[in-house]
Design brief:
Distance between the termini of chain B: 61 Å
Largest interface: A-B, 47 and 51 residues
Mean pLDDT of chain B: 90
Strand content of chain A: under 5%
Strand content of chain B: under 5%
Number of strands of chain B: 0
Mean pLDDT of chain A: 89
Oligomer: heterodimer
Helix content of chain A: over 70%
Radius of gyration of chain A: 15 Å
Shape of chain A: flat
Distance between the termini of chain A: 44 Å
Number of strands of chain A: 0
Largest sheet of chain A: none
Number of helices of chain B: 7
Radius of gyration of chain B: 19 Å
Number of helices of chain A: 3
Order of helices and strands of chain B: HHHHHHH
Largest sheet of chain B: none
Chain lengths: ~90, ~200
Amino acid sequence: MIGLRQYPVWAVWALLVGASVIGFALAEGLASAQLAASAAIILAAVKIQLVFDHYMELRWCHRPLRQMLAAWLAAVTLILLTGYWAA
Amino acid sequence: MHGTAEVARIKGDRQTEIPGDSGVWVFIFADMCAFAVFFALFSFGRLSQPALYEASRQQLDLRMGLANTLILLTSGAFMAHAARQARAGNARATLHSLLLTLAVGSLFGVTKALEWGAKLHHGIGLTSNEFFTYYFVFTGIHFLHFVIGLGVLLVLIARVQGGVRGGAIDAGTTRWIEAGGAYWHMVDLLWIVLFAMLYLLRAA
């Protein structure tokens, strides 16, 4: 089975654009406010992981850097989700 | 001639070490942590005044925010393509990709100027309220990173142009492209968070 990591840059770009348009459409009123906001945060996290792996090409990079960036992404996602749901 | 580590790094587009230079990654990670503090400040501020933040968010142009996102993602794809071409030793293709990265990326400056101009035209500025203070400060600092990124791209283009004349691209230039590319992608990913946080978090 061919994994995403073997796809060319433009396939990843298409995924990033698709995720951005979906987040935008949900925020424009295609879903309830809470669903749209949560989806926007999750989609942003997925997009950032794609940028890490396929634009920055960190998917085969040494583990400590990947772990630091994964921790950053988890912290930012948690901050945004907590900030939204606690308000 | 490439050393063993360099050969392992570029073989089959597989990398076993950090792309670019480790010093650049220290800077990138420190910068990302500073922005994480900004995101926390915004989220904390939103807790105390959710109605104000929502009313202010509704004054932002979501279509312009999406356009900015698509511009940076497209420019980033050209940058990633440039790094791959550089590792393959294709100087001319690398140069073309870097020029496209610069051309598409520059549009972000145009759309951001239009967006800020529209806000200022409607009397919305840095001191209008807390939301817009964060909006202008955060997008302003991000814009500064974007401008520095344009400078980095110009340096990379100048360096690769020498390689095109010589018909090849050396390992040192490839490392420069990887390091510059990592910085440019950081500009992408910080905008991804800013777009979600400022534009898309619709209150119930």
